[in-house]
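Board notes (copied after class):
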Amino acid sequence: MAKAGIIGAGSWGIALAVLLNNNGHTVTVRSSSQEVVDMLRTQRENKDKLPNVKLSEDIMFTTDISEAVCGMDLVIIAVTSKAVRDTAQSISKYVSKDQIIVNVSKGIEESTLMTLSQVIGEEVPNADVAVLSGPSHAEEVGRGIPTTIVVGAHSRKTAEYIQNIFMSDVFRVYTSPDVLGIELGAALKNVVALAAGIADGLGYGDNTKAALITRGIAEISRLGTAMGGKLETFFGLSGIGDLIVTCASMHSRNRRAGILIGQGKTMDEAMAEVKMVVEGVFSTKAALGLAKKYNVELPIIEQVDAILFNGKPAAAAVKDLMIRDKKIEISDKSNWDNGR
């Protein structure tokens, strides 16, 4: 059995702690808040972030980051995307050579346009950095609802090691070498989920949702392949799979925030009401920065940016998407008769 340290005691960190504990592994969860640690130790539940998910007495909690890193077979980073660099800096002096770090946070660093595993690799160059992503709401993973996910790593050995640790009869894990593609799908789907929520808030229907999901994955894959990601990744678990669940579920904080924005609330009002970090807000600017760098069109994400940061009315943004220049969906015209 493995020893796992989890940095972050939010909903996802706690859900993974439950999963790994159920798999028989030794788990230590680190939170920067003594108040949160005391609550978890005494109540054995995070009632704010993951209510009704009871925590085994075997799961340990600490504020000491070294206790969640030193001697661990793998360290899982489960903090907000904005906190990943500071977290990586904090653990760097404790990480041993080739120690495995699994990033489960989703986002792109706006100031550098780096993926989060790239950020971790820059701050902890002696680590073996992998990613875990896919359609996996913490609320369901914590309750043992069957879930399927993908691990991306730079070596098959690392990917299969992580696969074996996380795999269970309710948590199926696939492996992939496409770390970049997995992370881009994970980050950009949050922006499209905001758009899907906005459409819901405007009172639009299933047709609109299906269009946003379909054209959203087209945008994500267009940018992702331009950056070197594999096309099949974006039509897999960490691409279309994660996009569907994030656009459709009320577990999705991005969709919930989008609904509030569609109903007329500002970005700040929506984030305050959701009471959780809405990663899509922070990924929008980064996505447009990457689009400019790689000369890729992202019309849906552009309109989300205009709504969030320029005060554009949501209904006007949808209309502008609908009346864009005519396009062809399949670029290969070889099957068309000439002149028809």
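Comment from the instructor: The longest helix spans residues 179-201. The chain has two domains: 3-177, 180-322.
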